[in-house]
């Protein structure tokens, strides 16, 4: 089990990694799924043997309110159907925009994918005219019974206002989750695409209430 990281260098490294993903050319991505709410692309991850997913869609709301619903905090559990519990384990005196959270996810695909637990370092900061909220898993804390401990390689959400419609925002996510446990890769890939498009439709419903 690792000790808690030094927040500032980890936040800087995470920011740099996400910006690097955000600058990957269109030709490197392959479309996985398209719905009215979002499009999902994928490419091989450089962090592990699975895929880095990119998902993008326009959300009708201002950037700050959208990010408040995504980052660790009171809103997320209310609307994210995949997330079953979330606790802030640690905060950092030296960097108020960082925290360590533990969350659990529901079983998926008729429980072929059993519930998972994650412990993530999370960082939220400004990006261009909007915000970036990002995270990476830590080997920290005891694994609770009845859960497989998953691992999120660097992930994040860029949310920026549309230039001509500032009351609308372009939300772009980068997700690369190692679910771990004995799972067929095809099940993981199916679940990821559906989870990411459902995330947008659930988020849009939550913002309208």
From TrEMBL:
Q: Which GO terms describe its molecular function?
A: cholesterol binding; cholesterol transfer activity
SUPFAM superfamilies reported in the protein's UniProt record: Bet v1-like
What Pfam families does the record point to? Answer: START (PF01852)
Record-annotated START domain positions: 29-209
Q: Which GO terms describe its biological process?
A: cholesterol import; cholesterol transport involved in cholesterol storage; intracellular cholesterol transport
Task: Tell me which InterPro entries the record gives.
Answer: StarD4, START-like_dom_sf, START_lipid-bd_dom
**SMART domains per the UniProt record, alphabetical:** START
In which domain of life is the source organism classified? Eukaryota
Q: What is this protein called?
A: STAR4 protein
Q: What is the lineage of its organism?
A: Eukaryota, Metazoa, Chordata, Craniata, Vertebrata
């Amino acid at each position: 089990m690792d000790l808690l990281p030094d927040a500032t260098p980890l936040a800087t490294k995470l920011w740099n990694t996400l910006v690097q993903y955000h600058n990957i050319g269109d030709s490197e991505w392959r479309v996985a799924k398209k719905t009215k709410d979002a499009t999902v692309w994928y490419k091989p991850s450089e962090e592990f043997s699975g895929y880095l997913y990119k998902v993008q869609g326009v959300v009708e709301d201002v950037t700050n309110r959208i990010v408040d619903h995504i980052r660790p905090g009171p809103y997320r559990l209310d609307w994210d159907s995949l997330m079953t519990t979330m606790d802030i384990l640690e905060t950092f005196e030296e960097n108020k925009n960082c925290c360590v959270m533990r969350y659990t996810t529901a079983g998926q695909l008729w429980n072929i994918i059993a519930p998972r637990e994650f412990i993530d370092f999370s960082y939220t900061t400004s990006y261009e005219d909007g915000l970036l909220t990002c995270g990476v898993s830590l080997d920290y804390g005891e694994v609770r019974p009845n859960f497989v401990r998953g691992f999120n390689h660097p992930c994040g959400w860029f949310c920026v206002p549309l230039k001509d419609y500032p009351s609308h925002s372009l939300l772009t996510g980068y997700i690369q989750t190692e679910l771990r446990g004995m799972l067929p890769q095809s099940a993981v890939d199916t679940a990821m695409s559906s989870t990411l498009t459902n995330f947008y439709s659930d988020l849009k419903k939550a913002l309208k209430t």
